[in-house]
Write a sequence for this structure.
């Protein structure tokens, strides 16, 4: 440790600190000890290998998968900007390949496809430059980098493999690698732009979107499932943890005294009351109307996961009316099948496609009134947009009165609440908690609240 | 410390020599761990070879492997040390008559009466060892706090005896299935390594290494199927060890090709959940039936 920051890295130290500062701004908890480790680690690897350099840095700095993702994004951007800035300062320009006219597009295409399949990074980069040179000849540059990247990709006829295809298209290349190639294209285009304009584009913080819940449901279903799977594991261990935490035990006087008879009335062995974990009974109501389409796929998969985690769970979906889907979830493993079944024949009377909360409460109450007791938890997933209909908060109040706890998850940002036809305010006072939930983090907060509640004795 | 690990490449080769094909980052982190003397926190889905990495490291560096399997409710008596009170009792009884209290008291809290558990063992060994703390996420947070002293200073404080310092510095690996967030304090002391399922190419190498007699095209086919199965939404995706098991099963059965029949017969080696079996049979089995059936008759 004593050598950290002294000898060979002295010129580099301020830069790394700068980099760390950027990571901290993105919300990573990065301690001084980690930075010292990073310096120590960097002395052990050769700096000429970009991969080694990056991995060594990542191993000491990014301590979770999420951190690693932020790290990757920032690393690429930061070092790219740093080099470009330096190049600008020292007025270094790269020699561009300008034999674009002589390139055979067909041959280039074949070479690129080859390089992508082999996945060699250096080659892809060189070929990306060639492709830009060859493409530039056609004079189609739009000035917007994202657009250009896609144009070049299409001109090269590169396609990503479609998942689950029966026979792989011989023309297609692995999707991940193709993304890598696109990154190279983007980078080279950016570099060209910087050289032309002699200035770096302004730095922006990572968009919240990059970390938000995947909003495009179908393509990112796998991502949702990963989140939910993790949540499920957390749920499972959290209850274990809670059992471990509860230290106080209740003495079972009767049994202790009874047992003491065998030792002549001396209570040698103290008998405590067995711990009976609270078995929560969960009622989940999920809005599947069009106003929450993107969110409802997500919620359905949350519901799906909850079914695995909780034994006693009854789930309902509603639009204009309500229907119970507990059995369906228990029967079907595959999420696709579940959502298909709900869309087609779950019996949701989706006449107008407009949610009628008032009616839903009424129907829900008649369905479950006998099963609701203080041990049950009711969770509503919905945006509380009634389309101008009567919210019937009084019926909702009766539900929450009978149930032990009532929680509400709203997929809309808090900013939009109570705007337009959103009547969340009317219900809020009857809920133990109303949660805004449109990022993974918020979902985790909700889960924490849900499981923590279990700790309070019934 | 051993001078055996000089470069990342060497680590990689050594690991390969003991039957573990490490990815780039795994080799690098292992190298850094041995150079910096820091523990490594290995995370990743179940069955990607987290535990195996520790075992392979032990074999590669010819160190003894000491393993602490974590579970809920694991406490210091099981992990660090415990006083051997029976022996202490005997000692007191044999000497009670003619020895003073002071001598006995000093006596019975000596190393002779200490039962060392894995962590103490790990640092008290003369020769450096590989210490594997498996599934750390299964323990309580309190236990993590207890680990901190061992992990950062390689010492254990025993109230009656004083501080036991490490005689040799162990190479420590902690594995976690990420079932709960570990504390920042623990993470800060470790290097971090995320292991994921290998890509098809590396998995093929792994299968070939462990079942060299298996026909190459068959192995390739097997890996393809395993990778396909992992894409499905399963309760428990097949691990690397299971694909090796499957390869061996196929060898034993003398299979020449993975057709639908063979697949259904041996499916249970890679899929171990009732509901998963159905999903896999439906999604992959059918595909096999079409693809290979066609080839065979053709």
């Amino acid at each position: 440790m004593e050598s950290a920051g002294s000898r060979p890295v002295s010129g580099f130290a301020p830069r790394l600190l700068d980099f760390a500062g950027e990571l901290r701004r993105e919300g990573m908890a990065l301690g001084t000890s980690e930075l010292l480790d990073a310096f120590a680690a960097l002395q052990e690897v050769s700096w000429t290998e970009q991969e080694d350099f990056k991995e060594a840095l990542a191993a000491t700095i990014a301590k979770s998968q999420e951190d690693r993702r932020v790290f990757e994004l920032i690393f690429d951007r930061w070092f790219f900007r740093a080099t470009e800035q330096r190049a600008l300062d020292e007025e270094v320009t790269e020699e561009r390949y300008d034999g674009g006219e002589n390139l055979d597009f067909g041959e280039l295409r074949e070479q690129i496809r080859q390089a992508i399949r082999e996945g060699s990074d250096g080659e892809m980069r060189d070929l990306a430059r060639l492709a830009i040179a060859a493409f530039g000849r056609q004079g189609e540059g739009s000035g917007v980098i994202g657009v250009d990247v896609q144009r070049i990709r299409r001109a090269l006829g590169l396609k990503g493999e479609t998942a689950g295809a029966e026979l792989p298209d011989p023309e297609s290349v692995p999707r991940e690698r193709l993304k890598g190639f696109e990154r190279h294209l983007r980078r080279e285009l950016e570099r060209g732009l910087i050289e032309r304009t002699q200035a770096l584009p302004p730095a922006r913080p990572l968009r919240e979107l990059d970390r938000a819940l995947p909003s495009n449901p179908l393509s990112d279903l796998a991502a949702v499932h990963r989140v939910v799977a993790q949540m499920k594991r957390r749920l499972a261990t959290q209850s274990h943890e809670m059992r471990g935490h509860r230290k106080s035990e209740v003495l079972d006087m009767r049994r202790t005294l009874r047992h003491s008879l065998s030792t002549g009335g001396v209570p040698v062995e103290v008998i405590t009351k067995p711990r009976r974990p609270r078995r929560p009974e969960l009622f989940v109501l999920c809005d599947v109307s069009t106003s929450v389409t993107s969110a409802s796929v997500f919620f359905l998969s949350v519901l799906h996961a909850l079914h695995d985690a909780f034994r006693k769970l009854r789930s309902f979906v509603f639009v204009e009316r309500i229907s119970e889907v507990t059995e369906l979830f228990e029967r079907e493993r595959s999420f696709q099948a579940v959502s298909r079944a709900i869309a087609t024949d779950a019996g949701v009377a989706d006449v107008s496609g407009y949610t009628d909360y008032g009616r839903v409460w009424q129907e829900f109450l008649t369905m479950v009134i006998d099963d609701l007791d203080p041990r049950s938890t009711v969770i509503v997933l919905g945006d509380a947009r009634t389309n101008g209909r009567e919210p019937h908060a009084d019926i909702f109040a009766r539900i929450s009165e009978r149930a032990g706890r009532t929680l509400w998850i709203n997929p809309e940002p808090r900013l939009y609440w109570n705007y337009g036809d959103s009547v969340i305010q009317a219900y809020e006072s009857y809920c133990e908690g109303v949660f805004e939930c449109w990022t993974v983090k918020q979902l985790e907060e909700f889960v924490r609240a849900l499981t923590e509640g279990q700790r309070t004795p019934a | 410390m051993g001078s055996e690990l000089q470069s990342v490449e060497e680590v990689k080769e050594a690991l390969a020599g003991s039957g573990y094909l490490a990815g780039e980052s795994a080799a690098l982190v292992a190298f850094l761990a041995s150079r910096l003397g820091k523990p490594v926190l290995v995370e990743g889905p179940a069955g990607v070879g987290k535990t195996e990495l520790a075992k392979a490291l032990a074999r590669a560096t010819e160190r003894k492997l000491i393993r602490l399997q974590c579970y809920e409710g694991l406490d210091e008596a099981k992990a660090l040390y415990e006083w051997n009170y029976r022996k202490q009792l005997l000692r007191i009884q044999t000497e009670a008559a003619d020895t003073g209290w002071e001598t006995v008291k000093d006596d019975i809290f000596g190393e002779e009466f200490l039962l060392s558990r894995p962590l103490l063992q790990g640092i008290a060994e003369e020769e450096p060892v590989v210490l594997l703390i498996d599934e750390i996420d299964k323990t309580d947070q309190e236990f993590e706090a207890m680990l901190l002293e061992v992990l950062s200073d390689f010492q254990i404080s025993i109230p009656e005896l004083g501080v036991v310092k490490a005689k040799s510095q162990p190479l420590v690996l902690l594995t976690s299935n990420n079932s709960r967030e570990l504390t920042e304090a623990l993470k800060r002391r470790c290097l971090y390594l995320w292991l994921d399922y290998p890509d098809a190419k590396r998995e093929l190498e792994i299968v070939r290494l462990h079942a060299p007699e298996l026909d190459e095209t068959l192995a390739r086919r097997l890996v393809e199927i395993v990778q396909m199965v992992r894409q499905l939404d399963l309760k428990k995706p097949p691990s690397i060890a299971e694909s090796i098991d499957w390869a061996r099963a196929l060898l034993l059965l003398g299979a020449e090709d993975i057709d639908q029949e063979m697949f259904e017969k041996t499916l249970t080696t890679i899929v171990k959940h009732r509901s998963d079996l159905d999903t896999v049979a439906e999604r992959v089995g059918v595909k096999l039936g079409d693809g290979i059936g066609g080839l065979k008759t053709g």
In short: Chain B has three domains: 8-75+117-194, 81-115, 200-297. The first helix of chain B runs from residue 8 to 17. Chain B is about 50% helix and 15% strand. Residues 81-115 of chain B form one domain.
